[in-house]
């Protein structure tokens, strides 16, 4: 059994993290990209290393960020990134050793991450809380009758002119959109990091801006015997009104010399609803933000609830044992109180499944249908599942 010293990294040691990350991720990052990633971590971020003697064999970086939750509040969470273990120390408990202080009792009540592989984090109590949908569809598709759009309200702006405008538009969006993250300057720089190496033969980002939304996209020209068959790859589309949404899509669908649009939207992105034949858009769903309730009693009251509920839940949590046990959850007027109880449980679930349901996208009923939640009182799962659901699926479109 290996034991590791886990501690905060000194500024000198921080400079070695990118090498560790590159070796773990089978990658070779440019200095510039490393600097962009570093810049996304604000002054409050922490970086932990796992050591064997002097050798650093693992790292994790934790940045505090905010996410909009059901009910409209902003919840601050610990965002994990750059999790890396030296290839010659994999599967020897390094990540487990790093996760102990990261998920300590006194940390923020909610932790979140984007996983390289979903299979890694369930054991640490993370559930898949948002999903994204990859769309591939032909350009020039007409809209179904009744959809109005005004693409003449869309203007292409150069990056320097577009950035301040889209930041303001995004702030408006993130005020309301469940799943949207707060962004500091460094997050913007990283999300829009744009060099030859990251373009894969596509153009730099282009910015189509509407008074109430924007689309950032790249183009990839292709010439065939049958004529132009280019691709438009939409990096981010933000719309604060239905008119902005339809107008931006009309604009993107009509771009000349392109045959295909690729776009990763939210789980229930309304794009296909615009089309007369929804099958023309092929859709694939992928996992998104993973959520872990580090402190169940503190985390559940931070969000809103769409229906009243009064239920005793037995939580199973082997990694953060202070969460384990029976909790009396009472939601009324949109808010929830949580108290420890000795009463019999109405249902039993793993903490990862509460994390999955936290953003209102994943239904507890779906998890129960997979046999993952034990119901002891008929209707208890349906009641809590309904109360936790959000009006729409959460949309988290920024990988950090
Ligand atoms: C938020 C992010 O940054 S996501 C990025 C994560 N990093 C990467 O994918 C880079 C490449 N991989 C790595 O650096 C490492 O292999 C890590 C971080 C994924 C895992 O680190 P390790 O030190 O090997 O994990 P550790 O030994 O603590 O494993 C703990 C348990 O998780 C399991 N596990 C670890 N990695 C995986 C995986 N990729 N898939 C499935 N199970 C896994 C182990 O089998 C072990 O299970 P057990 O307790 O039943 O024996």
UniProtKB/TrEMBL annotation:
Protein name from the UniProt record: Acetyltransferase
UniProt: acetyl-CoA binding residues: 83-85, 91-96, 116-117
Catalytic residues in the record: 121 (proton donor), 400 (proton acceptor)
Location of the N-acetyltransferase domain: 4-150
Keywords: Acyltransferase, Transferase
Matches recorded under HAMAP family: Eis (MF_01812)
Signal peptide range in chain numbering: none
Pfam families cross-referenced by the UniProt entry: Acetyltransf_17, Acetyltransf_9, SCP2_2
InterPro entries hit by this protein: Acetyltransf_17 (IPR041380), Acetyltransferase_Eis (IPR051554), Acyl_CoA_acyltransferase (IPR016181), Eis_dom (IPR025559), GNAT_dom (IPR000182), NAcTrfase_Eis (IPR022902), SCP2_sterol-bd_dom_sf (IPR036527)
The protein's assembly and partners: Homohexamer; trimer of dimers.
Record-linked Gene3D superfamilies: 3.40.630.30, SCP2 sterol-binding domain
Domain of life: Bacteria
Membership in a protein family: Belongs to the acetyltransferase Eis family.
Keyword Nucleotidyltransferase appears in the UniProt entry: no
